[in-house]
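Today's session is about reading a structure prediction critically. Students often jump straight to the picture, but the first step is always the sequence itself: look for stretches that repeat, for charged clusters, for runs of hydrophobic residues. Only then move on to the predicted structure, which in these notes is written as discrete structure tokens rather than atom positions. Here is the chain we will use throughout the hour.
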Amino acid sequence: MSTTTDRRAPAARRAGARPGTPVPTPQPQTGRWWALVVLAMAQLMVVLDATIVNIALPTAQRDLGFSDGGRQWVVTGYALAFGSLLLLGGRLSDLFGRKRMFLVGLVGFALASALGGAAQGLTMLIVARALQGAFGAALAPAALSLLSITFPDPRERGKAFGIYGAISGAGGAVGLLLGGVLTEYASWRWCLYVNLVIAALAVAGGLLKLRDEPARTRGRIDVPGAVTAVVGLVSLVYGLANAESDGWGDAMTLGPVTVGVLVLIAFVAIERRVEHPLLPLRVVLDRNRGGSYAAVGVAGAGMFGIFLFLTYYMTGVLGFTPIQTGCAFLPMLAAIMLSATTAGSILTPRVGPRPLVPLGALTAGAGMLLMTRLDLHSTYATGVLPGLLVIGLGMGLIFAPTQNAATSGVAHTDAGVASAMINTTQQIGGSIGTALLSSFAASAAGDYMAGRKPTPQLAAQAAIERYHTVFWWSAGFFLLCALVSAVLFRTGPLDVDPDAPRAMAH
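Below is the predicted structure for this chain, in token form.
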């Protein structure tokens, strides 16, 4: 018994655990796995909503009669609210209870989805999407932190995070398929209404199967930190969204991005001084957690090239319908599930994230390089499928270990904000990837057509140049992810939960 205590002590010190931290009652094994089903269902709802609505947007635009600029705000409204409120949502779950915030987030997300599905105009749809993002920011960190405290044993934890990571990585592809099916056979409105079904099942399961520790009563909300975090993240995400349409040199891009960076610097200065910080810096400065945040942020930028531009290629060049495009991503989904569950259940508890995440990033990068061979005459089976399988295997090795590392060795009082950080960095990484890759793609197409007589054949080849440019840059992002992971992660298995009941550590 003393050996176990000694082994946990360094982790507790690194995590900043305090004496007297409340601990959850040990949960029966069957109950823990049912809890995983509930949490995974909620995570799937949040992740797939980022792509399912994209598929429905052209139909919604025709139905409600709004412009292309309005279409961008349907996407940006969700991203702004979700990305900017995640840290606050994570800290609220630490202060007021993770299960409570999880259920509030689920119900709120469902009601916002119902509002969006019933939208009679653009304003109503944008408001609904922003509310979805706000409640998603309460839901996502609460779900991940509940998973962390439900599975403190390293072996069970590895399996649970493998499954959860697979769903996080595959949710985008599921959204593309489900969005195509619902839009073609029902209505674009069902791409939002479907969340009511998922949320109802998750709420029922959450009430029955989720357990939480007593909420921390001491401490106050860090108002200056919350304000600067929200303002800084909103400015940054807004500026990056404008870069896609207005370019990097435009005042509407440079202004908000500059303000966002400066305000976030002020946020860090505030967090170093306040008594109850929104984001305790000890959470970020741990090498494994810092490594997971950096890796997910860079990989998030690279992932953009897979879902958006490969979708353009399959619909524009291969002539796929929305449903065919969604089905085309299913082999990648299967590859993510395979590698994430294998990495999570077998490899991560034994070797930790350091060898796995760089290997996954290099594998995903190799898959992106395979995509650079695509041309106007490629087929799905010989051109797209091999790259998708390789990318999927790599992404599974990235997501499962990083989500595990993001919450390993952290005190339960910080689990919510630690979980929020990985969602925040993925959101910011995706926004940066959207802006950069869209800009690079536009430049590549313009350079290819410069000085040539426009023809349909030339336009088609210019589109191929766009895709190749994006795939090369995405491969570069994954290479950077591999380098960052190899440098930042510590060698060896992850720390055990410093607050776990001793009986659950065996």
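Discussion point for the tutorial: Residues 223-278 form one domain.
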